[in-house]
Every structure is written in structure tokens, then in C-alpha cells.
Amino acid sequence: METKTRKAATAHKIIEAGEGVLNLVWGKADERRAASLEIIARTAYTAEESACHYLETIGLDKEGTIRDTLELARYQDTNEQTHEDIFARDLDGLKNWGDRFLARHIAVVIYWVFAITTLIDHEMAALLGEAVEVEAVKTYRRMLKEQPEEWLDQPAAPTATHYWEKPNSMWRVRGDHMPGSMRDVVEAIVRDEADHVKANSKKATAF
Ligand SMILES: [Fe+2]
Ligand SMILES: [Fe+2]
Fold it and tell me: Which Gene Ontology terms describe the biological processes this protein takes part in (predicted)?
């Protein structure tokens, strides 16, 4: 964790426990795990956006920090959506009915957990998000080591190339080269998740 407080350590423990359960179903660092966990992770940002928008609407954003958090969450949401589309759509990671059922139902629960937590204790919600991203970095590092060479050497998924072409995408802004293979894509995603760790750590103290 980038944040070194006790609250951050607690958030990390909660996420590790939840991930331990998900590992029973999606233990292998492949497109099934990535597609399922990305849906769940992306929903947390959508929930944060909704809650921030609500807080802004009822007039609590006196200094503009809630709006800044909302804008950052939107930017992260688009990036997570790209990850999801790469693994779920392009690589068919959700082809099993059971995976779709489970991932989507967990995502709905996570939406409400993150929306309500953001309203009650935004710091905690951001720290839980930071912990999710710490674990995401580990998943994609494992993917680079554990997926077969031919899988990593396959051409970059179309969504990845499309995302890179967007002038304000996280990959362009960072100066990444256009991904040629899935190895390049996963390496870019590792950098994305590491960026999310830092951004969520900052958001935790935003308001
Ligand atoms: Fe992601
Ligand atoms: Fe992420």
C-alpha cells in the first residue's frame, strides 16, 4: 500500500480476505480472472462517481475537491473499462455462463458497498480501492509470468489499439508506445494499476 496508515492496512486486509474467496473460482491469472475482476473493480469507480455526484448535488463540495475526485474517478473508470473490454469482449474471458453470473452479481453488490461507503467514509472507500489496485498489480505481474508464451505473443486486442489511439488515454498521456502484442498490453495494464494505487492514495485524503 502506498498509504501507510492503520486504516489503509485494515482496508488491505479486507480486500485480501475478499480476494481469497474469489481465488477459489478465479485462481489462475488468465483472461477469465482478468475479465471478472475488472468488472468488479470498474464498478467501484462508477459507484464513487455516483456518490461524489450526489454529494456535489446536495451542496457539500465547498472547495471543489469532490468534483476533482469525481473527474479522476471518471478517468480511471474509462481506463478500467478498457481493461474489461480487452479481456471480456476481445479475449472472450466471460464465455462461461457461471463466470458471467458470478462476476455480474458480485459487481452489483460491490457497487452498493462502494457507493454507501463513499457517502459515509470516503477515505475508507478510496483506501479499499487502493488495496484492490495493489492486488491488481500482482495479478497482471503473475499474468506476464504464468500465461503461455504464445498467449502473450498474440497480437494486441483491438480495444487496446483503439484505446492507445485516443489522444487523452492514460497510455498516450504516459508516453507508452502502441502495443503490438498482448505482452505489451499487459505491461501497460500493470502500469495503469500502479497509477491507480497512487491516485487512490491521493483521493483518500482529498475530502
Ligand atoms: Fe484494471
Ligand atoms: Fe485499476
Answer: alternative respiration
